[in-house]
């Protein structure tokens, strides 16, 4: 399908497609390596020991999600405009703020896990032997906490391979260390297994962090904390609002994913969890495409906002929505035609009850893919509150089902569908209206609190 395109739009669209391809390739390779890791571990480790390894790895994912402050949206929202304005001192203040918040979160999580690991292992997991494992893997948080800073920097500087290659290299390093250890060891020690994951995690995070710091080194030279804070202070209302809504998004989204399976496990039956889990796994390709599309399109959106190219931004959004709609429509049509047949071939007959759940989640994934470009647009135009409204609606529907005692796989799917419809249609209207208003009246962007852009220097 061909579209007419302005000459200046080609570089933006080309970068988006290139970076999307890089992200998808990296995600696919990482996923394949993790599947091989899982196969290797399940062949060697006893069931309980494999569970202990998963507990350790997932505990820190959980802690980073709840304790860590999400500053990636703040970086996307402010870094490009401040750089375009050549406001070096405010940019220095932004970097110091985000690096400081990330360091504090890393020290809190890592130090807490190190000091409280015996209590956590005994009190919550009734397994004192995993306390040393928490201490081993906990050191990774001191670096991974900076992911919210270095990934936006590398994306803004169009260094996508610098993010993707370490991710693949880290997964490959872990797999290599595990294979070598199991080949030569007589038996196994879980400390060595977790150490292999620790090394892999450091390979994934240290190189991109070092590169990002080199890229922004000119802005961090001659640090003057008070002057940087004063320069950044003029953006304080927008900054605090962005930080608040960004973290609120994370907490609200957690009720839907990954909290969906958690809530079903609490308030429904294992059978319903199994049906929902199967349906969600079948929509994983679209979910993977959605994540990588947002990763690739976000830098382009914030760059066009920072330079005031709102007409070009509208063309990018329109082109993306049309292309994603075609792809999503084909995916939904294929799923509706072949979903039931595929489930019957893949699983036992009782799993056919997952088909309606799969259909609903497939539509959800398609809607989310189509509207993914509006997330960074909402961040850049200071309208993230509308995005949160849709997430709040989804979470409210889930808790209505919980309160009524009728939460099951289909109920969870309906809650997500209702939220996707609200989020991708009603909540995107104000964002689209604001974008069109900025095209008609570009001077409106001087009103930082209303227009979502920047005071002129």
Walk me through this protein's architecture.
The protein is mostly helical and 457 residues long. It folds into two domains: 45-222, no CATH class; 231-457, no CATH class. Helices cover 81% and strands 0% of the residues. 42% of the residues are buried.
**Coarse shape:** globular
Spans of at least 5 consecutive residues whose pLDDT stays below 50 are: 446-457
Query: What value does the average pLDDT take?
Result: 85
Could you say how many structural domains there are in total? 2
Characterize this entry briefly.
With 457 residues, the protein is an all-alpha fold. It is built from 22 helices and no strands. The longest helix is centred in the C-terminal third of the chain and has 37 residues, at 310-346.
Protein topology:
Elements: H1 9-44, H2 47-67, H3 72-84, H4 88-123, H5 131-138, H6 141-144, H7 147-156, H8 160-184, H9 190-215, H10 217-220, H11 225-233, H12 236-254, H13 259-267, H14 270-282, H15 284-306, H16 310-346, H17 355-370, H18 374-380, H19 384-404, H20 409-424, H21 429-440, H22 448-451
Helix pairs in contact: 1-8, 1-15, 2-4, 2-5, 2-9, 3-4, 3-7, 3-12, 3-15, 4-5, 4-11, 5-9, 7-9, 8-9, 12-19, 14-17, 14-20, 15-16, 15-17, 15-18, 16-17, 16-21, 17-20, 19-20
Which key features would you list for this structure?
457 residues; disordered C terminus; 2 domains; single chain; 22 helices; mainly alpha
């Amino acid at each position: 399908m061909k579209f007419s395109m302005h000459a200046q739009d080609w570089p933006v669209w080309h970068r988006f497609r290139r970076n999307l391809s890089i992200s998808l390739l990296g995600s696919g390779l990482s996923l394949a390596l993790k599947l091989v890791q899982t196969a290797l571990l399940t062949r060697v480790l006893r069931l309980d020991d494999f569970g202990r390894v998963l507990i350790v790895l997932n505990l820190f994912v959980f802690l980073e999600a709840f304790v860590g402050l999400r500053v990636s949206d703040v970086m996307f929202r402010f870094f490009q405009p401040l750089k375009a304005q050549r406001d070096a001192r405010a940019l220095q203040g932004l970097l110091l703020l985000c690096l400081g918040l990330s360091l504090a979160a890393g020290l809190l999580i890592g130090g807490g896990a190190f000091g409280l690991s015996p209590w956590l292992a005994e009190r919550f997991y009734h397994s004192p032997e995993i306390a040393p494992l928490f201490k081993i893997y906990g050191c990774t948080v001191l670096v991974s906490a900076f992911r919210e800073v270095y990934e936006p920097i590398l994306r803004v500087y169009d260094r996508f391979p610098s993010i993707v290659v370490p991710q693949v290299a880290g997964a490959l390093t872990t797999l290599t260390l595990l294979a070598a250890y199991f080949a030569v060891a007589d038996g196994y020690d879980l400390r060595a297994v977790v150490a292999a994951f620790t090394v892999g995690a450091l390979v994934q995070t240290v190189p991109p962090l070092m590169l990002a710091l080199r890229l922004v080194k000119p802005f961090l030279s001659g640090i003057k904390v008070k002057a940087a804070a004063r320069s950044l202070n003029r953006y304080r209302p927008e900054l605090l609002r962005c930080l608040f809504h960004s973290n609120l998004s994370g907490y609200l989204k957690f009720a839907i994913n990954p909290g969906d399976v958690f809530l079903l496990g609490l308030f429904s039956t294992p059978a319903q969890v199994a049906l929902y889990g199967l349906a969600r796994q079948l929509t994983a390709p679209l979910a993977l495409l959605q994540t990588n599309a947002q990763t690739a399109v976000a830098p382009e959106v914030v760059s066009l906002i920072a330079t005031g190219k709102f007409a070009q931004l509208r063309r990018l959004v329109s082109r993306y929505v049309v292309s994603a709609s075609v792809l999503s429509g084909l995916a939904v049509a294929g799923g509706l035609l072949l979903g039931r047949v595929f489930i019957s071939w893949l699983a036992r007959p009782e799993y056919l009850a997952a088909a309606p759940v799969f259909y609903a989640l497939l539509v959800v994934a398609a809607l989310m893919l189509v509207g993914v470009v509006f997330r960074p647009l909402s961040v850049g135009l200071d309208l993230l509150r509308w995005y949160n409204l849709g997430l709040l609606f989804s979470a409210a529907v889930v808790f209505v089902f919980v309160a009524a005692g009728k939460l099951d796989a289909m109920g969870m799917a309906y809650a997500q569908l209702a939220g996707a419809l609200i989020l991708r249609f009603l909540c995107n209207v104000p964002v689209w209206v604001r974008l069109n208003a900025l095209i008609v009246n570009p001077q409106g962007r001087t009103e930082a609190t209303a227009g979502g852009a920047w005071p002129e220097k």
